[in-house]
Amino acid sequence: MKHVDVEGLRLEYRDLPATTGKRSTLMLLHEGLGCAAMWRDFPDKLAAATGRRVIVWSRAGYGGSQPDRRERNSDYLRREAHEALPALLAALSIEQPILIGHSDGGSIALLFAAAFPAQPLAIAVMAPHEFVEEVTLIGIRAARIAWDSTDLPKKLARWHHGRAARVFADWNDTWLSPEFRDWNIEDCLPHIRCPVLAIQGEDDEYATMRQIDVIAERVPGTQLLKLPRCGHSIPRDQPAAVLEALSDFIGRLA
């Protein structure tokens, strides 16, 4: 892993070089319990399939990145999109990236594209959230039970450098808090101007198809992909279908 200083924090990242000339960089944004390493070999396969430069990093407090000194609150996704991601792009001198976000990372990509419509060349979102559904809360409560009764703490500890408990608590406590129940970013969607690909698994344990249908309703031209036999972990459950869809989507960009 490489490291870069962003807003006073040392963040880890991987940088896979392009093999087909100078084209827009693909930026992978991880999910709520994820980090750069938890993408496993997906970035390598994406780089090989597209020939583009791929950067994957761990947000502050995840993986080997230095923790944020601020406490998590219900505005954390907007803060990542409006402050942390622009600062990272500036630190790495990246302009007009193609953002590819999973779950929390998908929501961050949508918020960024809405706030900075001239910045991203395109965005692809997998299992993003724009509002809180009851199925989401049921899934997150089930994750709490798994944390308390299974080896989930041990599994997450492999990736988060001794901070797995904080990573889990930040995610779980925030989403189950009363303040977060009314969280909703649908109003930002009409501000998005770039091409959008939205992917959802039919068996997602944290969301319904409404999460990507609403994107298509608010952002004209949105391309939807609904995958059977696929849960919330889309890159792991259906990697071949996702890589094919991303390669096609990216290849058709001007």
Question: How would you sum up this structure in a few lines?
Answer:
The protein is of the alpha/beta class and 254 residues long. The chain has helices at 42-50, 76-91, 104-115, 134-149, 152-157, 164-176, 210-218, 234-237, 239-251; strands at 2-6, 9-16, 26-29, 54-57, 98-102, 122-126, 196-201, 223-227.
Written overview of the protein:
- This protein has one domain (2-251): 3-Layer(aba) Sandwich (Rossmann fold).
- Helices cover 39% and strands 17% of the residues.
- The protein contains 9 helices and 8 strands.
- Helix 2 crosses helix 3 and helix 4 (134-149) runs antiparallel to helix 6.
- The mean pLDDT is 96.
- H-E order: EEEHEHEHEHHHEHEHH
Give me the secondary-structure category: alpha/beta
CATH domain topology: Rossmann fold
> What amount of the residues lies in strands?
15-25%
Highest-level CATH class: Alpha Beta
Calculate Rg over CA atoms: 17 Å
> CATH homologous superfamily?
Alpha/Beta hydrolase fold, catalytic domain
Strand order of the largest sheet: 1-2-4-3-5-6-7-8
Largest sheet composition: 8 strands, mixed
Q: Could you estimate the helical fraction of the residues in percent?
A: 25-40%
- In the residues, how many domains can be counted? 1
* Gross CATH architecture: 3-Layer(aba) Sandwich
Strand runs, count: 8
> Which spans of ≥5 residues are poorly predicted at pLDDT below 50?
none
- What is the average per-residue confidence, as pLDDT, rounded to a whole number? 96
Gross morphology: globular
Quaternary organization = single chain
